[in-house]
Amino acid sequence: MHRVFVYGSLKRGQPNYPYMTDSSNGKAEFLGTAVTVQKYPLVIATKYNIPFLLNLPGQGKRVNGEIYQVDEKMLQYLDWFEKVPTMYQRTVVELEIKMADKEEKLSPGSIMEAFVYSTTTYQPDWPSLPTYDNYDSNGDHGLKFTLREDRR
């Protein structure tokens, strides 16, 4: 089993969350919420308003998200879904646990590592875009995420 930190459209209540719960993709168990120990730029980019975590540690903000325990099948699915290695790269991030769904698996305030889908393959202007500490497709930014099936 692997731990994965999601910060964007795969979080609960976000447009791509159904992919996390589709058992044909593999198994994903919600463990809790966390925030990155280091700051990272979380930006919304492209005409489809996709959230990207730029792999620029020390810049941006501490980013909030969710931790899942996933099986190998789901990890491979997420690699495909996130277009690894061209669009995103799967790296390791250090997290501070905020809320644990099951206390025996995570302890609030503790530090742990998990995989994250961040990117080094971004456009030159992306580091100058506004940064966020918590992504919501329906946020005040007005940049609603476009689902893949709606993209042209």
TrEMBL record:
Reactions mediated catalytically: epsilon-(gamma-L-glutamyl)-L-lysine = 5-oxo-L-proline + L-lysine
- Active site positions, chain numbering: 82 (proton acceptor)
Domain (Gamma-glutamylcyclotransferase AIG2-like) ranges: 4-126
**Entry's Gene Ontology molecular function annotations:** gamma-glutamylaminecyclotransferase activity
* A Gene Ontology cellular-component term: cytosol
What EC number(s) is this enzyme filed under? 4.3.2.8
Q: Give GO terms for biological process.
A: modified amino acid catabolic process
Which UniProt keywords are present, listed alphabetically? Lyase
CDD domains from the entry?
Answer: GGCT_like (cd06661)
- Could you tell me which Pfam families the record lists for this protein? GGACT
List, alphabetically, the InterPro entries matched: AIG2-like_dom, GGACT, GGCT-like, GGCT-like_sf
Instruction: Outline what the protein does.
Output: May contribute to degradation of proteins cross-linked by transglutaminases by degrading the cross-link between a lysine and a glutamic acid residue. Catalyzes the formation of 5-oxo-L-proline from L-gamma-glutamyl-L-epsilon-lysine.
The Swiss-Prot or TrEMBL record describes its family as follows: Belongs to the gamma-glutamylcyclotransferase family.
Protein name per UniProt = Gamma-glutamylaminecyclotransferase
